[in-house]
Specification:
Mean pLDDT: 76
Largest sheet: 12 strands, parallel
Low-confidence stretches: 203-213, 248-254, 292-299, 302-332
Shape: globular
Number of helices: 1
């Protein structure tokens, strides 16, 4: 895609291009072209085992600002060299709610994101499984520029992972460096170091096995240290364009804060695999003669109702009010 001023591209699969996925009309002196790239799947442009594009598969020129240069809710994988970059006199970009994994290849110029602007923002991304070696994987150009927050970095090998003015509340796990080398920042607050994010694609919810993923980078509910980690965020959706403000669909419960990474965690409303407990209730003293009967305890009645409403999978259909579901006005 060669884009010009004010372009929005949404909902495409972009693959198997030998040069790039999206570049401005004039890559050397473009001061007007801007792009909002949303809900796209981008891969094999080129594959990570070939040279790739040193300037970046998704490129931004000198036009626009972080509100008009956006990559959002995209899945990017199996790419050679750099993924997202800004060339020329940087005007800032925003990268939000993206999943990036399995990229790099041999040699340098393998950053996931490279820009150089005080207003650039990288937030709520999951960045994992990097092949190769580079100075930084997310670089804002110096420790005086840009903000990197609420991301998950997993299974990465580089001399340093993030360079930015502000690096706040990110999770780093299975990094092939000493923890002191993860961050180069002007300020950093609340980062989680060496704690397994517990992706659903891993083999266990209780052991450090995020190296053994099966391709699912969503998270294991409140087991994950990423649960409610994005304190202070006002972002309202995740990579699936689902709300970040609720802990459960059926319950409508609000979390104290969204989850880190591209995927919001939804806590299960109930566990339908648990059978209600039967409790005998007697109309006479235990041990004496008489007829008894069996009911569900109040706790299990509530459980049974919650099971009916279990989160996304079995939300009960909407029902009309009683007065509208019978003919005429009821006499009570």
């Amino acid at each position: 895609i060669r884009y010009q001023k004010g372009w929005t591209v949404s909902g495409f699969e972009i693959r198997d291009f030998t040069y790039g996925a999206a570049i401005p009309q004039d890559t050397t002196s473009d001061t007007e072209s801007t792009l909002i790239l949303r809900d796209c799947e981008i891969h094999h442009c080129t594959s990570r085992n070939t040279n790739g594009i040193a300037a970046g598969a998704i490129q931004f020129g000198s036009g626009g600002d972080p509100d008009t240069n956006i990559v959002e809710r995209c899945t990017i994988y199996e790419m050679g060299k750099k993924l997202i970059s800004q060339t020329g006199t940087d005007s800032g970009i925003t990268v939000r709610n993206c999943l990036m994994f399995s990229w790099g290849g041999t040699g340098g110029n393998n950053e996931a994101i490279k820009t150089s602007n005080t207003g650039s923002l990288v937030e709520f991304n999951t960045i994992s499984d990097y092949q190769g070696g580079n100075t930084y994987l997310v670089s804002m150009g110096s420790t005086a520029k840009g903000t990197v927050k609420y991301n998950i970095f997993n299974r990465l090998t580089s001399s340093q992972i993030v360079q930015a003015a502000t690096v706040d509340r990110n999770l780093f796990f299975n990094i092939g460096r000493a923890s002191a080398s993860y961050i180069s920042a002007g300020t950093e607050t609340g980062n989680i170091i060496d704690d397994d994010p517990l992706f659903e694609g891993t083999a266990s919810a209780t052991t450090s096995t995020s190296t053994q993923r099966s391709g699912d980078y969503s998270l294991r509910g409140s087991y994950s240290p990423a649960w409610q980690g994005a304190s202070g965020s006002t972002v309202t959706e995740d990579i699936r364009n689902d709300g970040r403000s609720r802990g459960s669909y059926a319950a409508g419960a609000r979390s104290t804060a969204p989850s880190l990474g591209a995927y919001q965690i939804y806590e299960k409303f109930t566990n339908p695999g648990i059978e209600p407990e039967e409790v005998d209730i007697y109309a006479h003293a235990p041990g004496s003669s008489g007829v008894g009967f069996t009911i569900l305890t109040i706790k299990n009645i509530i459980h049974a109702w919650q099971t009916k409403l279990n989160d996304k999978e079995t939300i009960a259909p909407a029902t009309a009010p009683f007065s509208k579901s019978v003919k005429g006005v009821p006499n009570l």
